[in-house]
TrEMBL record:
It comes from Paraburkholderia guartelaensis. SUPFAM superfamilies: H-NS histone-like proteins (SSF81273). This is H-NS histone family protein. It comes from the Bacteria. Residues 86-105 are annotated as: Disordered.
Length: 105
């Protein structure tokens, strides 16, 4: 990623954090407190510890050509944020991507 795109993304993230009242300390606390529930996780939030039988969602992804390493969690896994009512997502550059998916109520 070139420097201009990087700076643009940082500005966008700062703007969205301000919209929701999120501070850098909030992000740091969420990262520090996030429990690791499994060794592997899907975009939908399904997880597997790596022990016992491999779950169906992971078998299907692997047979479709995805690598097991794609689903492996790093030590700093992030929990799903709660959504704030009335948020304006019309200009969200992540719309339609895995980053935009959530468990909407």
């Amino acid at each position: 990623m070139d420097e201009r795109k990087r700076e643009s993304m940082i500005a966008y993230l700062r703007h969205r954090m301000a919209d929701f009242g999120i501070t850098p300390d909030d992000v740091a606390a969420a990262l520090a407190a996030a429990p690791e529930v499994g060794r592997y996780r899907s975009a939908n939030g399904d997880s597997w510890s790596g022990e016992g039988a491999m779950p169906q969602w992971l078998k299907q992804a692997i047979s479709a050509g995805q690598s097991l390493g794609h689903f492996e969690l790093s030590s700093g896994c992030v929990s799903t944020p709660s959504l704030q009512a009335g948020a304006d997502w019309t200009n969200d550059p992540f719309a339609g991507s895995p980053l935009a998916r959530s468990n909407a109520r």
